[in-house]
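Review form for a predicted model. The reviewer records the input and the model, then writes brief findings.
Reviewer: anonymous (R2)
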Amino acid sequence: MKAVIPAAGLGTRFLPATKAQPKEMLPVFNKPTIQYVVEEAVSSGIDDILIITGKGKRSIEDHFDRSFELEYFLQNSGKTNYLNEIESISEMADIYYVRQKKQKGLGDAILCAKKHIDGESFAVLLGDTIAQSNVPCTKQLMDVHEKYGSTVIAIEEVPDERIERYGIIKGKKIDDSLYKIEDLIEKPKLEDAPSNLGIIGRYILAPEIFDYITEIDPGVGGEIQLTDALRLLDEIYGCIFNGKLHDIGNTVDWLKSSIEIAMEHDEVKDELREYLLKILK
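Model under review:
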């Protein structure tokens, strides 16, 4: 299975930090956000990844490419740990790139992948969410797809105050972690939401999704919404993600995620905890 990572957004919520660098390259602790996403795909057994980029996103390509000058310097300096780490980044997977020419929404970004996918089901991983779990989120969806042969999306319970930020599903419960979806609504008001189960940016999509994307009209925000195309599919399942989700959609959540992930690293957690306690007194 191939994976598609849409990374063409302008990152306006992070301005001015994203004026000259992609939102996807903002570091969460010690790695850019998009590296966590690529690592999830690779850990799920995927080694063919297409990243949908846009103008000003060249640093994403540079990050996953070789850096011979840096590698030479690290080799001569005896910094083998750093050398091994950056070499592994360029060797993780076969990564390809295509540009979304105009900002027309997530559905349009995914449509850019049609030729690369070549008629097979494929994974989609959005770059504003880091999913941590023993079994990668994408692999959890792949397992459901293998069983049912249909489109599968990752979902989780969403607090009331965040309902308007998510696509929300209406579905019939099959078991504790799986729903057969009857409808999806993009960013509804709380009173219009059919449930509190939100789409969290991981999908296994059947190839016919491309046909439906070309049929739909612009939706919320005047953009081509993937949610509107998903509503046209004959069968679709929602899988509750078993793991920890880090939202990178705005500056506060990005900062929280960076601190939480840093606290998982023994070399910094004690010093960081001491500092946080000091400034919060």
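Findings: The chain has a mean pLDDT of 92.
Further findings: The CA atoms of residues 216 and 229 lie 6 Å apart.
Recommendation: see findings above.
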